[in-house]
Amino acid sequence: xxxxxxxxxxxxxxxxxxxxxxxxxxxxxxxxxxxxxxxxxxxxxxxxxxxxxxxxxxxxxxxxxxxxxxxxxxxxxxxxxxxxxxxxxxxxxxxxxxxxxxxxxxxxxxxxxxxxxxxxxxxxxxxxxxxxxxxxxxxxxxxxxxxxxxxxxxxxxxxxxxxxxxxxxxxxxxxxxxxxxxxxxxxxxxxxxxxxxxxxxxxxxxxxxxxxxxxxxxxxxxxxxxxxxxxxxxxxxxxxxxxxxxxxxxxxxxxxxxxxxxxxxxxxxxxxxxxxxxxxxxxxxxxxxxxxxxxxxxxxxxxxxxxxxxxxxxxxxxxxxxxxxxxxxxxxxxxxxxxxxxxxxxxxxxxxxxxxxxxxxxxxxxxxxxxxxxxxxxxxxxxxxxxxxxxxxxxxxxxxxxxxxxxxxxxxxxxxxxxxxxxxxxxxxxxxxxxxxxxxxxxxxxxxxxxxxxxxxxxxxxxxxxxxxxxxxxxxxxxxxxxxxxxxxxxxxxxxxxxxxxxxxxxxxxxxxxxxxxxxxxxxxxxx
Length: 528
Fold this sequence. Notes:
Oligomer: single chain
Mean pLDDT: 87
Radius of gyration: 32 Å
Low-confidence stretches: 422-427
Distance between the termini: 54 Å
Number of helices: 22
Helix content: 40-55%
Structural class: alpha+beta
Strand order of the largest sheet: 1-12-3-6-2
Shape: elongated
Number of domains: 3
């Protein structure tokens, strides 16, 4: 690639390019945020002949998602077949020049900024350090707005400013002859253009892969806006408790469905038309996956999902296999799910592993059992001593197992409602330490925060009825008011209150019996 050479442009030419749709602001840029003070300083630098930096533009025939208007000015579309130049650096400066010459009013919050009202102090000398251009009208000096200076005919200026006409003409010439430095980067792929933007962006804000793909796949004629499509998907998933699925996972699902790879490089190479063509099918495969997680694995909310990445291989399954899984497929999918969840499968090298797992799913679709090179340790002592954390995939797997049995409320055997609003933090009221931590600490009993000591309960029960009481005390109350208490506790994998040491407050017996019960259930799901 040749190094692009700087070139010069005049003020009127730059604004004309914007007016005619040849220069665009890509949507991944920030909105125009410069206030009137920054704009006045920029214009003051220009009138004094100071350098204001270089505009860097990317010339391409690709049509990206771009900002459609600045203030009340609707920016036209680029003529069909012509190249467009997207601003990679200098957006705020170039937008400032545009709004001043157009005399726009722009609303920022509850305030309307009138860019016609930037003034040139005609009683100050341009060769001094004084600010010639100010955001407020000078009180004791003759002044003219920059808009009038640049837009009005000489006859009006002569009539209105007879004593200052030479100075006004000088200032006007300074604007119209100022040479703006521009560099046009020609026909680079979007990923390289995005890298250039990232490196020169003075805010240090790196473009996300999703922002790049939103720009790349935007198609107004097909009414396709990836950002808007993702927002709609989020709303749909939020209605069923899966509103925490990140955009990056959706991109990986698209890529897996198209090319069976999920790397950043593979995603950036996806063709716009291909993405648009399979979007609806991919959405259906994601929804089919979530429906499967909610019904077959009984995971009611996305915060219990051990890894969001699990959506990708399962989405690929439902993208290729339009029917419900057959019995053999169901067994193989279940083993894959639990192996991945209990082996820290996606704690590193996620993209590479997803590519490997898409191949495993392909085998499952064919009715073949995949080989695994990652092992799961299902050991009672390992689980018994595993510290509880909602950010830990192993813990989430155990919580998902708890959720599978649809745990009931201790006091009345009703269903416990689990949703994302209560499942984010480890100290949430939905997570109850069956042997309360305060009780264990008071009695100098360690290992109080093991995942084995966690049960899923409703907020009211945890806060009002249990608190720091010993199990033998608070469970006696529930025994009196809940005639189905033994049945209720089995939904928490606590099968027998006597054997589990509950009535004797025997914490070690409780941990041993419940960890054995957990291992028993996991072994039903995995061949070890």
